[in-house]
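Re-run requested by the PI after the first attempt was lost when the workstation crashed. Everything re-entered from the original request form. Ligand of interest: cytidine-5'-monophosphate.
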Amino acid sequence: MQNRDVIIACDFASADETLHFLDRFCDERPFLKIGMELYYAEGPEIVRTLKNRGHRVFLDLKLHDIPNTVKKAMRVLSGLGADIVNLHAAGTRAMMEAALEGLTRPDGSRPLLIAVTQLTSTDQSAMEHELLIPRQLDEVVIHYAKNASAAGLDGVVCSPLEAGKVHSACGANFLTVTPGVRFADGDKGDQKRVTTPGDAKLLGSDYIVVGRPITSAADPVAAWQRCVKEFC
Ligand code: C5P
């Protein structure tokens, strides 16, 4: 898989904090994830800033609205130059197809578009009793991944533990972008089902998303390099 890479989750509250963190990397330009906290704090300028500094950017805003609204919002995000963007597969195929339309630039290029299936914070009980979906969680995850694939999306966010099943259901080229990664000798934090970078590679993840094991490390650059060495 030629695209395998480590994406650092920049879960910082401000551009200042983010740039201070990135200054440690000197000439290296890791792939970065910008989530809602940083995006809502700094607005689209943070994407332009990181792109201008030479980083690839996964903009993790998880859109979910009516198709027309998502299409127009995706057009804006595409114009920022993000490399990967995402949405909730629960928005239905019509929404995912509209998103792809909005993302496609006049020259035909577009960011990769991936879907969140079920959030890992949603468990079987909440899905059954609050969302009234009376099926097994892993069955729902794979079904939503297939919907995303049928809509023309490029992949899903999932656990490395689900990467094999997703590839079996949706094809080897359908991307699996996987958080929940920890070093074998590291702290799990609030992640429950964790996988090492090496195991994520064996399980077939295409990209691992790693936050605190890098951002909270005493030496973040060394921690990132260790991830790259174990995973890529
Ligand atoms: O610090 P940590 O490595 O746990 O960060 C993981 C990143 O991936 C965070 O930005 C978190 O919001 C995100 N994420 C996740 N689990 C999901 C979806 C996204 O941990 N199911």
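Saved to the shared folder this time. The mean pLDDT is 96.
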